[in-house]
């Protein structure tokens, strides 16, 4: 006995998935059944989860470049450093 399941996919994702499955000669239904069976058998997601790399915004990018420049000695690091929270808080209160 089988039952019907509805899966909602973004149109672009569905198109790309269908193209790859067509190339492999596998129907979308077969693909999802295979993935489901492997999850049940292996008790884990049967493939590595990869996410798209995050692109830093301009502020983060500048901070990363500045940190790299300070680490390389290209820019002097005049930032105060603290060994405890109390000294940090006193410094913040001064401003």
Automatic annotation (TrEMBL):
Per the record, the coiled-coil ranges are none
Q: Where is the signal peptide?
A: none
The name this protein carries in UniProt is DNA-damage-inducible protein J
